[in-house]
Design brief:
single chain, 483 residues, alpha/beta, Aspartate Aminotransferase, domain 2, Aspartate Aminotransferase, domain 1, 2 domains, 7-stranded mixed sheet, 3-stranded antiparallel sheet, 14 helices, 12 strands, globular, binds pyridoxal-5'-phosphate
């Protein structure tokens, strides 16, 4: 194991030498001062080596293929990072006078507009900090709009069983009741089951489209129509926008409110790499309820903060994760409209390429393999002739082949699920190598299953006790009272 940074501490070693203060000393309140703060004493080279070693033990999209389904682990162009580090963006303070941050506000304004155009909405708020936070904001918007319509008694949110797990969680957080709607055999929402739940208690439907089965909901227009007829709104989970940019727009399909995952569709680092951003877009009817402040432009052309008239309020301190806005803005501008469409086409092509190869080789069942998938596909870790081997074993063995495993055991409605999202930024060689690894692992599963049960063999840490890690988490190892 890597030593803990406190184990490297030796009394008297210093990483920094503080200069003598050149301002008069001011006594601090005694209750804030601690004599026994056990900071490690360690020189700069040891600190640098410690963290570089740790970073090399980590896996990242800059190191290799990362096909984590539903997470869109695409390559983050380094131009994004350069832009986000420009001092005029990176060194701003959120409480600065708007007159001094017009450039940053222009970027936010234009990003609001570009996202609205990409997904077909009237207005966008950039406040929410991540996808699930955008969902919570969206559910609160739908509920506020129902109250404004005199429908405050409505309390049900319908959620298909192919939705992302955050959808029922956000609904529950907002105090509303989740009603699960089953999928049909074809992977679409069971329309009759949906209609049976539509009544005057429904706030709305939350639908993930493309769904977590990697399928485009073929009846989405009809679904929106019947929900609207029952007086409900339709929430679209837009985290999977990577499949449809420039091809179709959720707003045009009838969706009323949607969150974007800037840290998926629009690159920006995520997965241990940085904060998220989950802007929420809405139809004209819901625009007044957006969380704020948002950026508007006044008659003089200046950018100003405004609070939408019936806003659900502020959902984040200050103005959201601004560094993510710069990266997403850069990404959109670098691609342009044609480029974004190409992103989606290539993402769908890459997923279908993997699906076609896996079908051809026949080792892994693909429950909806008769349909084209969208940006991701769901296979099963059920290898004929290797019944004792499970998806977890296959995922761990992939690590030995140098790949980050796909999402596993999700969606819940597919037993032994392997949810694979290659993204558009991978070459054919990488996709081929990944499928070859899966094929080799299927062969090993039949001939030497123990190799899979004990995998990974080459990773810095072996198979973890995930249950214990979840039940008895050790969140901090800061020594109490010093060493
Ligand atoms: C990732 C994801 C979310 C949640 O987004 P976070 O930023 O992780 O909170 C919601 N829905 C879908 C379909 C997703 O893939």
């Amino acid at each position: 194991m890597e030593p803990f940074i406190y184990d490297l501490s030796r009394p008297g070693r210093r990483g920094v030498d503080m200069p003598d203060p050149d301002v008069p000393l001011t006594p601090l309140p005694a209750e804030y001062l601690r004599d026994d703060l056990p900071l490690p004493e360690i020189g700069e080279p040891e600190v640098v080596r410690h963290y570089v070693r740790l970073s090399q033990r980590n896996y990242a999209v800059d190191k290799g293929f990362y096909p984590l389904g539903s997470c869109t682990m695409k390559y983050n162009p380094k131009i994004n990072e350069r832009m986000a580090r420009l001092p005029g963006f990176a060194l701003l303070h959120p409480l600065q006078d708007p007159a001094t941050v017009q450039g940053a506000m222009q970027l936010m304004y234009e990003l609001q507009q570009m996202l609205a155009e990409i997904a077909g909405f009237a207005a966008v708020s950039l406040q929410p900090a991540a996808g699930a936070h955008g969902e919570l904001s969206g559910v609160l918007i739908m509920r506020a709009a129902q109250v404004a319509r005199g429908q405050g008694h409505r309390h049900k949110i319908l959620v298909p069983d192919s939705a992302h797990g955050t959808n029922p969680a956000s609904t529950t957080m907002s105090g509303l009741t989740v009603i699960e709607i089953p999928s049909g055999a074809d992977g679409n929402v069971d329309l009759e089951a949906l209609k049976a739940q539509l009544d005057d208690q429904v706030v709305g439907l939350m639908i993930t489209n493309p769904s977590t089965l990697g399928l485009f909901e073929q009846h989405i227009v009809e679904i929106c129509r019947v929900v609207h007829e029952a007086g409900g709104f339709v929430y679209g989970d837009g985290a999977n926008l990577n499949a449809i940019m420039g091809i179709t727009r959720p707003g045009d399909l009838g969706i009323d409110v949607l969150h974007f995952n800037l840290h998926k569709t629009f690159s920006t680092p995520h997965g241990g790499g940085g904060p998220g951003s989950g802007p929420v877009g809405v139809s004209a009817e819901l625009a007044d309820f957006l969380p704020g402040p948002i950026v508007a432009q006044n008659a003089e052309g200046e950018y100003v903060w405004t609070m939408p008239a019936r806003s659900i309020g502020r959902v984040k301190a200050f103005h959201g994760n601004f560094g993510m806005f710069v990266r997403a803005y850069t990404y959109i501008r670098m691609h342009g409209a044609e480029g974004l469409r190409r992103v989606s086409e290539d993402a769908v092509l890459n997923a279908n390429y993997i699906q076609a190869l896996l079908k051809q080789r026949g080792d892994y069942p693909i429950p909806h393999g008769d349909r084209f998938c969208m940006h991701e596909l769901v296979a099963q870790g059920r290898i004929a002739g290797a019944e004792g081997v499970h998806t977890l074993d296959i995922a761990k063995r992939l690590i030995d082949y140098g790949f980050h495993p796909p999402t596993i055991y999700f969606p819940l409605i597919v037993p032994e699920a392997l949810m694979i999202e290659p993204t558009e930024t991978e070459t054919k060689e990488t996709l081929d190598a990944f499928v070859d690894a899966l094929t080799a692992i299927a062969q090993e599963a039949r001939t030497n299953p123990e190799l899979l049960h004990t995998a990974p063999h080459t990773a810095p840490v072996r198979r973890l006790d995930e249950v214990r890690a979840a039940r008895q988490p050790i969140l901090a190892r800061v020594p109490v009272g010093g060493r």
